[in-house]
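Please check this.
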Amino acid sequence: MIAQTEEQIGQAFDDARERWLDRINNQPDKQPQQLLVDEFTNYSESDITKEPAKKFVKASLSDPRKAEERLVCIAHFFTNTAVGGSDGTAKGRSRGTIQIDRKTADGKTPLKVAIVNGLNNSDGDAEVDKKVTIPSWLTPESIHKHFNGQPIDFDD
């Protein structure tokens, strides 16, 4: 499903939370699912999506793992506003998410270098501002194709 209007987006947030609970409680042999939320920055500012986004963020810090959901949220910044205006989630966001901060030189094309936070090293310590090179396959287009019958060629 692709939600495009504010009403559809708000309903999609509510539906995701209900689906996570159903998958946690009623589907022991569930197969993983992917959920992609783009332009997340704007949802805390709309009267229609504000409350569903806030509840979605709080639930997203624990429920997707239990529900076997793979959640990807795209936002321009990693602030409370950018993630639905959900208060009290800073610690959960820093420990329970992986943030990939990509820059651009021309305002359009992301650079191959990014800063990653939210991963632990082999000693279990959090990596902070880890500079990495982004693989060529990590694009919205290739990820969309991957989940629609055109698997990613990781060697490309």
